[in-house]
Amino acid sequence: MDPSTDTAFHALLTGSHRRLVGRALGPEPDRGAAWLYAEAPFAVLAHDLGPDPRFVYANRAAQACFGYAWSEIVGMPSRLSAEAPDRAERQRLLDAVARDGFVAGYAGIRIDRSGRRFPIADGVVWQLIDADGVLHGQAATFPPPPG
Fold first, then answer.
1. pTM (whole model) above 0.70
2. How far apart (Å, rounded) are the C-alpha atoms in residues 11 and 50?
């Protein structure tokens, strides 16, 4: 997938966010897949439905937060974005999203490629559900941490 041109995945991300959260994903929703991937000033990540869900999308803001290139983060188990002691809390969040469709106002600690811990605040996590009601995974967005 080329994240800057994949209009189907962009529609899944933005459409499911609008339907479940009730607002556009970002202030400029009509700028398209290229804008969301390369220029959006907020992080967006998504993982699949596998038994150990793996990232299938990470825009450049998310790549910068976690310190991975696209080729490194896509395919990585999403649980590795949190340290082992924080994974139970992360799983509770994902279970709440599965139950409720989305969770807003999420805050937590994540870990980047080098092992540096960083805070996430004011995050939104939602189910990736297409227009036909088919579940594809979960996605998250959050503003980059300060500094």
1. yes
2. 21
